[in-house]
Each structure stands twice: as C-alpha cells, then as structure tokens.
Design a protein that fits this description.
- By secondary structure, the protein is mainly α.
- About 80% of the residues lie in helices and about 0% in strands.
- The chain contains three helices and no strands.
- The chain is rod-shaped and about 85 Å long.
Length: about 70
C-alpha cells in the first residue's frame, strides 16, 4: 500500500513540476528569446573580432571595381 502511495505522489509531483516549468516558459517566452539573441550576438561578435575587419575591406580591390563595371 505504501509503495503505491509513493508512486502516485511521485507522479503527481512530477506533473506539477512539469506544468509549472511549462507555464513559466510560456509566460516569459519573450525574455527567453531575447536572452538567446543576446547570447548569439555575443558569440558572433567574438567570431567577427577574431577574424578582424580587414577581411571584408574591398575599397581598394581592383577586381571588385572590374566586377561592378560588368
């Protein structure tokens, strides 16, 4: 009898915890998305700084000027 009570109470507590986590995730979905976007921007910013800004400087590139003429 006690084992059934433990199993049922464990399942009930599990369902309540899952429900609470789901409700909080729905309620604060915008905050969670902004947090992920900030983290993504931070990571991509580090990658851009690692390679530097010289990789995309095409102002003095003659091949680019020829391509624009075509």
């Amino acid at each position: 009898m006690k084992s059934w009570f433990k199993i049922i109470s464990g399942l009930l507590i599990t369902l309540v915890v899952i429900g609470v986590v789901t409700m909080l995730a729905i309620k604060y979905f915008g905050v969670i998305v902004r947090g992920f976007e900030a983290l993504r921007d931070k990571v991509t910013g580090r990658k851009a700084r690692f390679f530097g800004s010289e990789c995309c400087d095409y102002e003095e590139d003659d091949d680019l000027a020829e391509a624009e003429e075509l």
